[in-house]
Amino acid sequence: MRYLMFVKADERSEAGEMPSEKELADMTAYNEKLVKAGVLLDGNGLAPSSDGARVVFDDTNTPTVIDGPFTETKELVAGYWLLEVSSRDEAVEWARRAPLGPGGQIEIRRVFTDEDFGDALTPEVKEAEARMREATQHRREPSH
Fold it and tell me: Which helix (H) or strand (E) holds 3?
C-alpha cells in the first residue's frame, strides 16, 4: 500500500526559513532509514505558500486563481514523503520516527489503487492510465 505523509506547515516554513544544519542532518538520517528499509518512493520539502497559488472552482465550474500566501498555516503542507508499506500502522510507525520538533505534525493518507475505483475504471481508462504512468516514469529516470 502507498501512503502519502504530509508535513504540516508552520510559521517558520511559511516565512521561507530554511532548516538548520542539524535539522537537515536529522532529516537526511531519517530519509536514509526510509531508503534502507525500502519504503521511500519520493519525498521533498515545499516552498512557502507565498510562492504558490490555488485554483478554486465555483458552482459553474469557473476557475479562479488565488495567489499565495495563504493565512491558515494549519491547512498548509511544508513537505511530504510517499511510502510503500504493508499497512496504515506501518506508515504511522514511520511517521512517529520523523525528526520533527515540538508542534510538528504529519498527516497520513492512503493513495488509491486501481481496485479502489471498481467498475468505474474501465479497461480503456486503465490502459490510458498505464500509458501515462509509463511516460512519466521515463521522464524521471536519469539518462546515462
Answer: strand 2-8
- Answer positive or negative: Cα dihedral of 85, 28, 20, 67: negative
- Show the domain range for 57: 2-111
* 118 phi-psi bin (left φ>0, alpha ψ -120 to 50, beta other): left
**Sorting pLDDT into bands at 50, 70 and 90, what band is 72?**
confident
- The total domain count for the chain is 1
Nearest-CA neighbor of 111 among 94, 127, 88? 88
Against a cut of 0.90, is the pTM above it? no
Q: Which amino acid is at 115?
A: E
Q: Phi and psi (nearest 5°) for 40?
A: -85, 120
